[in-house]
Amino acid sequence: MHSSYSCGDGTLGEPPRRGEGQCGNMRLLLRQQQRILLGKSDVAGWGAFLKNPVNKNDYLGEYTGELISHREADKRGKIYDRANSSFLFDLNEQFVLDAYRKGDKLKFANHSSNPNCHAKVILVAGDHRVGIFAKEHIDTSEELFYDYRYGPDQAPPWARKPEGSKRDESEGRAKKHQSH
């Protein structure tokens, strides 16, 4: 058990960025997140909104939840799908985060195939954690969206990509989990 946190092992599959003054995984550890407000979504149910404007690449907060197995996630997913709400998030090959009971307000950010945020799995002190970051400048009271990375048949109808839209899928492996 070592207590030094290195900057630069941080995000998966991405070279370390220098000159940020403080690296992303430390920010996650220190919980320096933006104030998130809940409101009626323009898309579905509740949405997450920013209290203050942020710049591109700013850290918005952590997607938190209960760590569960994929098998348990599949079981819960069937129940959640019937209720038409799912807060399951694929973390890695072993675990899924379930924010249903334990998550914070960022779990209310809705899906978009053209989002203003993105999720990154970050290694913090040996644990995999999910940080949500701004993809662009976002103004006060703008609704937050990120790509849940649904499989081809898993997205709810309102979240389906228009036919023929091919977007770059190279970003992190983080994706919202859907049961089959």
Automatic annotation (TrEMBL):
One of the GO biological process terms: heterochromatin formation
Residue ranges, compositional bias (Basic and acidic residues): 160-173
SET domain segment(s): 34-149
Cellular component GO terms, alphabetical: nucleus
Record region (Disordered): 153-180
PROSITE patterns recorded: SET
Top-level division of the source organism's lineage: Eukaryota
InterPro entries recorded: EZH1/2-like, SET_dom, SET_dom_sf
Annotated SMART domains: SET
GO MF: chromatin binding; histone H3K27 methyltransferase activity
UniProt protein name: Histone-lysine N-methyltransferase ez3, variant 4
Organism the protein comes from: Pisum sativum
Lineage: Eukaryota, Viridiplantae, Streptophyta, Embryophyta, Tracheophyta
